[in-house]
Amino acid sequence: MSGRKTPIDNIEVDPESNSVLVSLNPKIYPLEIVYSAAYAFIDRAYVILDGDVSEEILVELRPKASLDPETLGREFNNELVNYAASAVQSLRSQEVRDAIVRRAFLTNEGASAPSDDFRNDPKGIANLWKQPEQKD
Amino acid sequence: MPSVTVNGPDRKVEMSINLAFYPMPKVLMAAQDFSGSCWVDVRGVNSGRIQLSIRPKSQEQDVSLLGHEFLNYLLSLARVR
Q1: Is the pLDDT of residue B77 over 90?
Q2: Angle B42-A46-A37 (CA atoms, 0-180°, nearest 5)?
Q3: Dihedral angle at the C-alpha atoms of A72, A76, A82, A84, nearest 10 degrees?
Q4: DSSP chain B
Q5: Which residues are CB-contacts of A79 (< 8 A; sequence separation ≥ 6)?
Q6: Residues A37 and B79 sit within 8 Å (Cβ to Cβ)
Q7: What's the mean pLDDT when you consider all of chain A?
């Protein structure tokens, strides 16, 4: 890809095809995070994933509208950070969420189960009603 | 990088897809979904990549971005495990 690349940046712009290539370290951004960020971009850009899952993930973004590819690449980096941060946060709060759900399920544990008394018909509900005989 | 080659005169898009990112069942699902509007040809797997070509059935359909539309759709399927 004939573009410009600086040692710091992980993005490479190809003006010819109006696309940007973002290189990612899978140890920092696991594939699930990359999928989520890439999916968030499919309404704005054409996204292609390639590379090596364990060494280097390559994401090619080609804007659909007249967007600057470099900006798109930088926005993608930001989106990755968002998803990675929310994944970490979700992992941290996992224990609390589990505890809340466990507590919710335990709430009704002490309640008594309905008894089988109704089968004995203690109030005589099943008896047919009869007109009482009139006494003269 | 994946090659998305548009063959203008043949109105055909050829793609080489990395199966590490796009699992084979998802590629086949996407191919099936596109088979209504396109002629899809899924070819052999070579060193972890699958070769696939699609050609629109209708003459009016734009072929230039068809491959990228396919890959975006494939991504939406692939992200759901």
Answers
A1: yes
A2: 105
A3: -170
A4: ---EEEETTTTEEEEEEETTTS-HHHHHHHHHHHTTTEEEEEEEEETTEEEEEEEESSSSS--TTHHHHHHHHHHHHHT--
A5: A37, A40, A41
A6: no
A7: 85
CB A74 within 8 A of CB A63: no
Q: Which of B52, B75, B77 to mutate to test the interface with A (most CBs of A within 10 A)?
A: B75
pLDDT tens-digit map of B17-58: 999 999 999 999 999 999 999 999 998 888 889 999 999 998
Cβ proximity of B37 and B61 under 8 Å = yes
Place of tokens 């055909």: B12
Residues of B in contact with A57 (CB under 8 A): 21
State residue B1's pLDDT score.
62
Query: Is pLDDT of A14 > 50?
Result: yes
Q: What is the pLDDT of residue B2?
A: 54
Residue B27: predicted pLDDT:
93
3-state SS string over A24-58?
Answer: ECCCCCCHHHHHHHHHHCCCCEEEEEEEECCCEEE
Inform me whether the C-beta atom of residue A18 falls under 8 Å from chain B C-beta atoms: no
